[in-house]
Design brief:
4 copies of one chain form a homotetramer. Chain A is 22% helix and 33% strand. Chain A contains 3 helices and 5 strands; from the N terminus they run βααββββα. In chain A, strand 3 and strand 4 form a beta hairpin. At the B-C interface, helix 1 of B face helix 1 of C.
Chain lengths: 134, 134, 134, 134
Amino acid sequence: MIKNDHVIKIYYRDVDQMGIVYYSRYLEYFEEARTELLVSLGLDVPSIEKEGVKLPVVTSHCDYKKGARLEEELRIETFIDKTPKATLLINYKISNNSSGEINVTGYTKHAFIDNESHPIRVPNFIKDKLAKYF
Amino acid sequence: MIKNDHVIKIYYRDVDQMGIVYYSRYLEYFEEARTELLVSLGLDVPSIEKEGVKLPVVTSHCDYKKGARLEEELRIETFIDKTPKATLLINYKISNNSSGEINVTGYTKHAFIDNESHPIRVPNFIKDKLAKYF
Amino acid sequence: MIKNDHVIKIYYRDVDQMGIVYYSRYLEYFEEARTELLVSLGLDVPSIEKEGVKLPVVTSHCDYKKGARLEEELRIETFIDKTPKATLLINYKISNNSSGEINVTGYTKHAFIDNESHPIRVPNFIKDKLAKYF
Amino acid sequence: MIKNDHVIKIYYRDVDQMGIVYYSRYLEYFEEARTELLVSLGLDVPSIEKEGVKLPVVTSHCDYKKGARLEEELRIETFIDKTPKATLLINYKISNNSSGEINVTGYTKHAFIDNESHPIRVPNFIKDKLAKYF
């Protein structure tokens, strides 16, 4: 398994009229957290794109358990549980960084495409980076 | 079945470095479209909240089929297929308004809560508005 | 003078914990409105970019008069008062579409650059489109 | 003078089709940075609001010097240069955290209002926190 922890803080821009984080913001947090996971593997987005590869999201899913509020710190745990085949599955758990109470869980699924947007197999340079974890 | 169609247009703010709509924006489009569906039923958000009721999202799900591009017009079809029980399920299909090609499908699930954030049964004023469609 | 009117509606995604539109959203509304003004002149963004020209924002300014609330309809009036020289100045007035009460006024200033991001003079195809209004 | 430095990183969500940060995002960065400045003074937003005070933005201004790109780190320097009278003026300078090259400068002006949205004088608890810096 590959795992990364990333902590963020909630600002006014994130919070809606109910006083809780607006539901689409969690997909932005997911993106931030998986970027940091990929960076920790030596797979920052510019490096991946320099190889002519993109990882577009093909599915996103969020289960909202508890609204997060202004100035809370959230821990985003990001997991890759298995070697990608046609797609890469990334799981997320977002919880309050003090209490541990869970706010959101979810996942994203990513395809591998080339510069002409054609689906491709998992590129070797990505496979190599992931191999040692499984 | 309850169904509403809503057309939007894509602007620069929506589009990322790949030249396609950033993935979290679709949840904003879903919100806009379901608001219009609810308005068409006489259930605008301020009216619902005046009754002391909120419909927080408990799940969101998107399947991304094809990236939408700058200045495209998108048709968002919003469906309620069945009477809500504990939760209300709303389905979405987003497609190019000219070609009909599908960009995104997805759904959101909503709980009913009162002002103290306690889960409640489907309120009668909502049941009544939906009843004639099923 | 060139003038365009554009009406938008406020959704949950736009509104913060104070119950009013979050301040950066107005820059998105400005972009939507100036895009529609430019489209009305035959200057949609893809057409401009096809000519190898971009109009990056070099300055933005907003004066916030009155917070706009959920489900309000806002009228965005967009003005070009004078022929662009080095930069194009666009003015905005956002008001409640029923009462006429002003929410926000502001402006954006745009440079003209080529594909290598070098500043260029106002391109002729843009000058021609604007000429008849001044 | 009061000054705070805050570093952020640019993610995909922030970047538009030109490959640079979309112009409204800087107002979100300003908000994040001024929140951290206020926190450093013991003036976090929930504390201020608990006193029945809000600091709505009445003016925002940005000068965009150079587009910031994906995965760049930006340093946001936030300044309060003088004691607030009717309004509080906050200045910002955003630059590349490695090269020091400036991306954006700007300011926001904030009013003081009570819970009924009436303008009020600078509250004493805020004056006291700021006094020692001037």
